[in-house]
Amino acid sequence: xxxxxxxxxxxxxxxxxxxxxxxxxxxxxxxxxxxxxxxxxxxxxxxxxxxxxxxxxxxxxxxxxxxxxxxxxxxxxxxxxxxxxxxxxxxxxxxxxxxxxxxxxxxxxxxxxxxxxxxxxxxxxxxxxxxxxxxxxxxxxxxxxxxxxxxxxxxxxxxxxxxxxxxxxxxxxxxxxxxxxxxxxxxxxxxxxxxxxxxxxxxxxxxxxxxxxxxxxxxx
Amino acid sequence: xxxxxxxxxxxxxxxxxxxxxxxxxxxxxxxxxxxxxxxxxxxxxxxxxxxxxxxxxxxxxxxxxxxxxxxxxxxxxx
Lengths: 220, 78
Prior knowledge:
The complex is a heterodimer of chains A (about 220) and B (about 80).
Chain A: H1 4-11, H2 14-23, H3 27-49, H4 52-68, H5 79-98, H6 134-146, H7 150-161, H8 166-173, H9 177-199, H10 205-208
Chain B: H1 3-8, H2 10-14, H3 20-32, H4 34-52, H5 60-77
């Protein structure tokens, strides 16, 4: 038994110890947690609210709420996914305020079938992003992702940009695993399609002929 | 494997969670279907670009101001 215990401690996520310290009254430990995640939380809030000022408010409110409610954190999930869930809810509340009470949910606009089947098969140049300045590229990426329905955008950001697992994304957003998977695929395909407008090589006329994939009826 | 079947497992291909048996089928499909190969490669690149480029960068002074505010509010809260 004595050899098992230290391994378990090593495996423990570093946030577990920090959370315990905060619970014991150590505010400096919370400072470490805030520093560790503030950029991600800001990013998620900005992606949902699409507004800088709102994102700043959400970030502050989410960290404060997490601090106040830390006693309710069960420790079944990671501190980070728990924190993200708070930030997502705060962001949706903020949106609701802007839209003067209109209900806002993660299911908004997800009924669309747009972009679920690839249509543009132009290949991309190698490292196509290098043809743009950093500022131009940021503009393209912003425009591209802002065009996604919100319910797809958030799934993509949590899963692919933030690197949460499918299960963690589902838990954070209160969605089922199949729902996350279906939204992720459609988000990825829609983003790909939109980026092809900027990064795609002009395909030769011959290659354009009959430009649908073989074996089709590809409605996903 | 048809294109539709390939699309259905595209996410698993991208996330590298494909069973070995299926992998051979996928490789065979990609060898004969240029469109699916493009979709796979460009979708992979799409994810990589979004992952590597921070589009909502917070300037250091803004980040410092927000951080200070958060900690001040937390200290007051307890």
